[in-house]
Please model this.
Amino acid sequence: MANSGVQLIGFCLSLVGIIGLIVGTVLPQWKMSAHVGDSIITAVATYQGLWMSCAFQSTGQLQCKIYDSVLQLDSSLQATRALMIVGIIISIAGLGVACVGMKCTTCGEENKVRKARTAMTGGIILLIGALSAIVACSWFAHNVIRAFYNPYTPVNTKFEFGAAIFIAWGGSFLDVLGGALLVASCTK
Model:
């Protein structure tokens, strides 16, 4: 029926992926100021995230400001926020469902087929949550790239990818891998 080792690896990968999604969503480094052009003044680095923007000065001082109004935010930033939160919630739900259906748990042991299908359903839910996060990260990245290569964007306001978007991408791909392992372990 189901291979408990593969299920456990899928569960652990998904758990680490969800942690990556949460960390990536909370961190303010989704995009950071790009030091391009002739200007060599790099005393201030600007970071922007889903929830706040920060300025890091060469003296080591970091100042962050939470976005005041949801209405003033760009619609793509609002959509990215929503997709990341939905992805996290769906992934957590999928992890819970998968946990109930895993071979190594004692919940519902009387029906092995139903238990295996429950684990597979949890894997599918994890894949849906990861897809939501991948869409959010990729959409945000597309907007950063489009603004960077726009000739009308002033050089001193260009941004490039920050660390948080890579953490969120990594978390979502771990979710995909974990969900796929959970689905593949219950294919009979």
Q: What stands out?
A: Residues 4-28+74-184 form a domain with the Butyryl-CoA Dehydrogenase, subunit A; domain 3 fold (CATH 1.20.140.150). The chain has a mean pLDDT of 89.
